[in-house]
Design a protein that fits this description.
The protein has 23 helices and 20 strands. The strands form 5 sheets. A 7-stranded mixed β-sheet has the order 5-4-1-6-10-7-11, with helices on both faces. It has a 6-stranded parallel β-sheet with strand order 12-20-17-15-13-14, with helices on one face. The radius of gyration is 28 Å and the shape is elongated. The structure holds nicotinamide-adenine-dinucleotide and zinc ion. The site of zinc ion has 6 residues, from α14 and α18.
Length: 609
């Protein structure tokens, strides 16, 4: 299938004449747009089609392909139709000339509909974005679209459609984005067919297709582009470009989101239903991922209070979350429900919380979870997601990552879209946690603090959280004069603060080595950290002594001899996995870490465990 991009470029724009030739970071806007379209690698060819010699020359000068339109045209589609009439192409995508930050994701989305089972029925495809603000919904400059259950467009309008007779009814409104992917025939038909009354009165081009019975399939894309419609837009775009360049050169200071809403207190879980209510979208269920340990806990299930078509999925946390597991859950949800869920609610320990984060991301992003393991690879905002921890220590409730074991690596999906939208901290939910497990997961928090406070990445931000969490761990695990209720509340807050502490620094040796154990032997995070930390006197002398004291004090069993009899290949694989976690070593040992942590040294350490 031959796919091309066409960028219609008219010189005189009514609101901002000559805007396409304005300077944007040293190049004209239209050249930026051309380069952005080209950089997506989605097209066999990219053309600018224009009425202006100036634009034509500028594109050619920059090594691009431009076509002069012969006739006068009323709209971009006509200009494109004339240009493609004699070309051998299957799909033509129009890219707006004034959208210099055109993202690959949106274009990919609009093209992807031609891979679907109903592709034969589609004459053209276009994009829509969720809108929530009534001001925008009622703004006539914002074109709204409504669709049928297969996302075929029913109508486009400048009026709010549908009209909400009942103001409280929950309805997702969509705004139309002017990106189209046409089958060649569709765009030629458009050119030949005269305008009819609906198009004329609304002044919306694509209504013509509907008036002639064509099928427009809509894809959802929530990424925000920037259109250059006014001189102010241009100033803003120049600013953004500068920021982007600055970030590329200097990303020393990270700018990351935090959990925006959190409720704390014994029994606060009862507020779950009222917290979710305003987030419920018509017919779109909430999906509750619940640790299997609660499967027969009817009281908890009653408190979850599933409504309508909500779904409870009980999930075992015997194994750490895997990318394949995330993909399967997402597939099952998509197979069962036609609309995207209103939200994903994780109720459990780090395992379930991480699954909930990953599933909410993957419901809004294409491909496999494995494609997004790493830093800042996620493109679309995740589905609304809520975390309800039932065991304390990992900090997964507050962190910006979801740790997954993938086909080739154990690595988190670390992104701005990962943190929960809402967290419910109810210490009473941790009442049933078995003693050993309480200790292992609690020690994850203690180790987060030790690694953060002793790391080279330490700064006042991490330190303030790390010290608080460390002190809370002392009260809970060393001083031992708290009531159980006090201890539960404090450990929940220690977990939170420990998570915040590593958000702005990093973990260290124990975590790097524990990831190796987990990848090869499936050892779970909490216990794996404990096994490793027990042998790290060389790196964290005082805290390892303290740790040993806590083990004794609480009578906790520590597995031994885990690696003694492993095959050499298994040990080497552990070493590979551990060493691949570069930032952890940099934090623990500084820039010279490779000289300090040799394979031999790691091997000896593992063999002792
Ligand atoms: P977990 O979620 O694996 O649960 C441990 C055990 O406790 C399970 O058997 C579970 O059924 C049980 N359990 C949980 N709550 C209970 C309750 N209230 N009553 C009785 N039993 C209960 O343990 P965890 O240590 O919280 O999480 C470990 C996972 O967290 C690992 O997969 C690790 O990779 C991940 N993690 C993530 C982050 C992050 O920032 N995203 C940080 C650290 C760890
Ligand atoms: Zn940890």
């Amino acid at each position: 299938m031959k796919i091309i991009a066409m960028i219609p470029a008219r010189y005189g724009a009514s609101r901002f004449p000559g805007k396409l030739m304005q300077d944007l970071g040293g190049k004209p806007v239209i050249v930026r747009t051309y380069e952005a379209a080209k950089a997506t690698n989605l097209f066999d060819e990219v053309y600018v089609v224009t009425d202006s010699e100036l634009i034509f020359k500028e594109i050619e000068l920059n090594g691009g392909k431009a076509i002069m339109s012969i006739k006068e045209h009323d709209c971009g589609s006509d200009r494109i139709a004339e240009a493609v009439e004699d070309m051998d192409v299957d799909i033509v995508v129009n890219v707006q000339g004034d959208e210099p930050f055109t993202s690959k994701e949106g274009l990919e989305q609009v093209l992807s509909v031609f891979d679907g089972a109903d592709a034969d029925k589609i004459d053209l495809a276009s994009l829509m974005t969720e809108i929530h603000d009534w001001k925008e919904i009622s703004d006539p400059n914002c074109v709204k679209v409504i669709v049928d259950k297969e996302n075929f467009a029913l109508y486009f309008s400048r009026s709010p459609i549908p009209y909400p007779r009942d103001k409280n009814a929950s309805m997702q409104y969509f705004k139309h984005k002017g990106i189209y992917a046409f089958r060649k025939q569709a765009i030629l038909d458009f050119y030949r067919l005269p305008m009819r009354s609906l198009e004329a009165v609304e002044k919306i081009e694509c209504i013509r297709y509907l008036e002639y019975g064509k099928n427009i399939k809509m894809a959802i894309s929530n990424t925000q582009g920037i259109e250059i419609d006014t001189p102010e837009d241009l100033i803003r775009a120049n600013k953004i470009l500068k920021e982007e360049n600055k970030v590329a050169v200097n990303n020393k200071y990270r700018n990351f989101p935090m959990v925006p809403k959190v409720v704390f207190g014994p029994g606060c879980f009862d507020q779950l239903t009222s917290i979710l209510a305003p987030r419920r979208k018509d017919k779109a269920p909430f999906i509750f991922l619940v640790d299997e340990v609660f499967k027969n806990d009817q009281e908890l299930i009653d408190r979850i209070n599933p409504r309508f078509n909500d779904k409870l999925l009980f999930i075992s946390s015997d194994e750490e979350p895997k990318t394949t597991q995330v993909d399967q859950i997402v597939k099952d949800i998509k197979a069962e429900f036609t609309s995207r869920p209103s939200g994903i609610i994780g109720i459990g320990g780090g395992t379930i919380l991480d699954l909930a984060k990953a599933v909410s991301i993957m419901l809004a992003n294409k491909g496999s979870a494995a494609d997004y393991q790493g830093w800042d690879l996620v493109k679309n905002k995740a589905v609304y997601h809520v975390g309800v921890p039932t065991i304390s220590g990992t900090g997964a409730e507050v962190s910006r990552t979801t740790v997954l074991t993938g086909p080739v690596k154990k690595l988190g999906i670390n992104s701005d879209f990962t943190p929960f939208d809402q967290v419910i901290l109810d210490p009473d939910l941790t009442i049933g946690v078995p003693k050993n497990q309480w200790f292992y997961t609690g020690m994850d928090c203690f180790i987060h603090c030790v690694e953060s406070l002793n790391g080279t990445f330490l700064n006042a931000f991490s330190q303030s959280y790390g010290e608080k969490a460390y002190d809370l761990c002392m009260e809970i695990f060393v001083e031992n004069d708290l009531t159980e209720e006090e201890s539960r509340g404090k450990l929940m807050m220690a977990s939170w603060h420990g998570g915040m502490s590593i958000a702005y620094s990093q973990v260290g040796v124990a975590h790097a080595m524990s990831y190796g154990l987990s990848y090869v032997l499936g050892t779970k995070h909490g216990i794996g950290n404990c096994i490793v930390f027990n042998h790290l006197e060389e790196f964290y002398p005082d805290d390892v002594v303290l740790f040993k004291k806590m083990i004794k004090e609480h009578g906790v069993e520590m597995p031994r001899g885990l690696c003694k009899d492993l095959e050499p290949e298994q040990i080497e694989l552990m070493i590979d996995i551990a060493l691949s976690l570069v930032p952890l070593w940099q934090n623990a040992l500084g820039d010279d870490w490779e000289a300090i942590m040799t394979r031999d040294r790691l091997r000896a350490l593992y063999r002792r465990m």
